[in-house]
Structures are given as structure tokens and as C-alpha cells.
Amino acid sequence: MSEIVLSLSGITKTYNPGKPAAVEVLRGVNLELPRGQVVALVAPSGSGKSTLLHIAGLLDEAESGQVVIAGQDAGRLSDRARTEIRRAEVGFIYQFHHLLPEFTALENVMLPQLANGASGGAAKARALELLGRVGLSARAGHRPAQLSGGEAQRVAFCRALANGPKLLLADEPTGNLDPATSDQVFGVLMEIVRETGLSALIATHNFELAARMDRVVKLENGVVTEG
Q: Which family does the record assign (predicted)?
């Protein structure tokens, strides 16, 4: 049986609960993500996909339900332990790269490693390796403002992968790029994911990109359905 890297069971989430403006976003989401599988999460705007990804990555808490990452039940862990799992096991990529503008590409990829206890030398070597794999060795010393949109997003990919996570969560990772750049950058992302054997849950509006993944799930009316 394949290792289940991410398991979501009965996940619910309501904003402004108990008030007239209450919005039930997630109504019992169930989802399993085996090791090495890349899953497209297709959902319309405002459907709760970002909320679901944040809950899956332990950035937010569900009202009810269970989140298990790499065999660890997050609901049974302290806040500190949840943070440690997030740092070690989960990588995030967003639509906008969110790189720190005052740091170079190299430093942006080093930072999560340093926060996770890596030495400066080890963090630099790993960052240079990753930047080389996405074709950005020559841009390592450039700050985000000096990079193109596609280059900055590739740096964001490297940052997300820097700590060697088992799970990658991506929220419209190419949604801010033009179609040609989006296709190129997504190709780089998929190549790295395949090489590393990562499990990935990637939210996208782009049905062509979704078709290139192993499996497609839809988030509609607060629940996840296949296909």
C-alpha cells in the first residue's frame, strides 16, 4: 500500500460562526494524497481552496476534522510541534512569490533552512543546488526586483523545496504569469516534483495544467469530489 503523505478527514470551516454573516466554506472535506502523487485542485474563486490549503499545511485550523501529515495527527500536537512539522514536511508556493525584497535569490532560499536549524554552509550549498536546477545559477545574487516574474516564481519554488518536504502545497502557482511563461514555469515545477518524489496538491484554474497532473479533484459547495 502506498504511503499516505496527507490525509484530510471531515474538515469543516465556517467564517463568522454564529453570526448572520456566517459563511460555511468547508462542509466535510475528505482527501488522501499518496506519496509521489501530484493532484490538481480545481475550484472557482471564493470556493475555499486557499482555506483548504492553509488547513492542510497547518497554517490555519479546521473547526472539526482531522489533518494527518506524514503519519502525524496534527490535532494531537502542540503549536510548537505543528510548526516543526510545517517547517520540515511542508512546502508552500503562492500565486505571488512573496520573496523578501531586501534579500537576494540565494538568501531567500537559504532562509527557511536557517530557520530549520541548518548551518550557513549547508544552507548555501542546498540553495545553489536548487537554483541551478531551475536554471538560475547566474541570478543567485539578484534581488526580487531584478528578476522577471517567471524567475521570481522559480526562486519561490526553490524556497518551498529547500527543507526537503514530503508535501508541496501550491495555490495558483502560475496564475500571475502570462500563458507562455506559465507553461514554462509549470514544466520546471513538475520536473522537480517528479525528480524528488514529492506529493503535491496544486490549486489551479487552468484546466490544461490540471490535465498534466496525476489526478484532478474539485472543490464545490464545500466538499471535494473526484474528476
A: Belongs to the ABC transporter superfamily. Macrolide exporter (TC 3.A.1.122) family.
